[in-house]
């Protein structure tokens, strides 16, 4: 009799665990559906391609993204808004047969990489930033990150007088290339003697100009840690990072980007908007912010040994 009761209890417990497992699996599948795929037209609303431009005038932007956390389509509270910023990192590659990485003819290619990919020391990279939802004043601050977790002094690498004479007022879907072509960032170890693991970029898109400690010059401006921390404390917010599916590994020639890209950095071609015919940004940062507040995102460029 005791054995019979024990068996019944065992059966009940087993069924309960099975049902719990099924419910858990269903919940996981629901979460997976929330996180898995986001259509590009849900986060990139560029104007259609003008007729005769060589691109097809599509009503939607094709492509999909995978978000880092659940993507909500529910409108935010009235006092809040979703602010979005597109970012693409290109790594300079030389095609088969090229003798030098520094060659800038048709042999040189720029390879699109995901934002979390570790870059080899000595790599040459260029960064493209595209405001997706608003215009504002763009700032990019760079800090060295070391193996002990400490960060170096913040340096304002954009704007400087070398780009558009310091004019950093950008509109939605205008591309900013940093550094300005034909220059690149070169991933070199720090000269401090410490083991460096990354360059950490902080991108700020503010509706009004920030108060800087001095006038802009031709070289990056060193900022005080206190001033930089006041900005990060004021505008920090959780970020949903979305990566373009199938975008990593896409290549374009250096010549095409330098001569044909729609970029705020190119003289005589300022103010051109990207359209639905142009490539999508590799990474999108989506942040819920107070209306009228600045958008702030942090992008680590990680290093790895050769």
Distance between the terminal alpha carbons, to the nearest Å? 70 Å
Unreliable runs, pLDDT <50, ≥5 residues? 1-34, 52-58, 95-106, 266-270
> What's the order of the H and E elements?
HEEEEEEEEEEEEEHEEHEE
Oligomeric category = single chain
Number of DSSP-assigned strands: 17
- Name the beta content range: 25-35%
Number of helices: 3
Rounded mean pLDDT is: 80
Domain module tally: 1
User: Roughly what percent helix?
Assistant: 10-25%
Q: What's the alpha carbon Rg, rounded to whole Å? A: 23 Å
The main sheet comes to:
10 strands, antiparallel
Tell me, what's the shape?
globular
User: What class do helices, strands and sheet pairing give?
Assistant: alpha+beta
Explain what you see.
The chain is of the alpha+beta class. It has one domain. The strands form two sheets. Strands 1, 2, 3, 4, 6, 10, 11, 14, 15 and 16 form a ten-stranded antiparallel β-sheet that branches. Strands 5, 7, 8, 9, 12, 13 and 17 form a seven-stranded mixed β-sheet that branches. Strand 7 and strand 8 form a beta hairpin.
